[in-house]
Task: inverse folding
């Protein structure tokens, strides 16, 4: 009895894919800075999702009698404010933990919008070339020439500061990097033998883009998305610092920095701990992104 070729090929392909994942994990594990970044990012995500269980205080609850208490000060019930309290008596640790939520939400949503938009533009521009490429790249030049902060102020001034508005503004204004990176990959991929073979066999452009070009262009896109998330978090914090981000009483790291700058000489902890939260989160994402780039780069395989 003969065995179908597909029955042999399928397990072989699955085994090869598993081996590639094992090699990828081993290579990534050898990069200690990437592992440190991954641990930091995991801690931040865990704190954001488990915020209600990590602190006994309400981040918006005010207690004027306990205002500007230094780190480690107890309240009337004997519970400690590990990071102190702010100018309204709110527990700073609770606000820092809950402040991770809008930062990560904006980071993920804005990167998803800009990444998908940039991926589509890069695929179409690099694969079809010609007039399509010229139109998209001139739009990218116009986007880069327009100052982001002016765009943010104009849109937020008209629509009002809110989380959805911030996500859309950042997402729509950040697609250019993805488009250019994907376009550069597609320009080389469309000349490869497997793409030309698919064209010779009569495959349509849509099938070639989805089945052959997209999987090979996904690696640089993923690296850019990882690194860009850190930039988006900084932008969200900057907008909140300027009063253009998520509005009080919702805690945000940028808003806490803005509140703490008035008391920097008398209550250093108000600005220090939110600033450290931004620093560690962005550093962790950048370190993990660098390690991911080095691991996925075929020229650096060791």
Result:
């Amino acid at each position: 009895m003969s065995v179908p070729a597909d029955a042999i090929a399928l397990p072989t392909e699955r085994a090869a894919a598993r081996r590639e994942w094992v090699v990828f994990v081993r290579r990534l594990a050898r990069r200690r800075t990437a592992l440190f970044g991954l641990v930091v990012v995991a801690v931040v995500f865990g704190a954001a999702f488990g915020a209600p269980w990590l602190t006994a205080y309400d981040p918006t609850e005010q207690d004027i009698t306990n205002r500007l208490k230094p780190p480690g000060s107890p309240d009337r019930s004997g519970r400690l404010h590990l990071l102190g309290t702010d100018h309204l008596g709110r527990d700073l640790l609770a606000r820092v933990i809950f402040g991770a939520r809008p930062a990560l939400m904006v980071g993920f949503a804005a990167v998803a919008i800009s990444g998908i938009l940039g991926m589509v533009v890069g695929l179409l521009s690099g694969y079809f070339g010609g007039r399509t490429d010229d139109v998209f790249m001139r739009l990218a030049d116009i986007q880069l020439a327009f100052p982001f902060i002016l765009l943010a102020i104009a849109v937020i001034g008209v629509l009002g500061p809110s989380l959805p508005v911030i996500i859309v503004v950042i997402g729509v204004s950040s697609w250019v990097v993805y488009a250019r990176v994907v376009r550069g990959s597609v320009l080389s991929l469309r000349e490869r033998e497997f793409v030309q073979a698919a064209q010779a066999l009569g495959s349509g452009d849509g099938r070639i883009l989805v089945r052959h070009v997209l999987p090979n262009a996904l690696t640089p896109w993923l690296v850019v998305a990882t690194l860009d998330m850190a930039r988006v978090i900084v932008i969200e914090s900057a907008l909140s610092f300027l009063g253009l981000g998520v509005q009080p009483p919702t805690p945000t790291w940028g808003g806490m920095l803005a509140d703490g700058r008035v008391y920097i000489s008398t209550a250093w902890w108000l600005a220090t701990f939110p600033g450290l939260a931004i620093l560690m989160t962005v550093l962790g994402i950048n370190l993990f992104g660098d390690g991911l780039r080095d691991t996925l780069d075929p020229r650096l395989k060791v």
Notes: The domain at 49-272 is CATH 1.10.3720.10 (MetI-like fold).
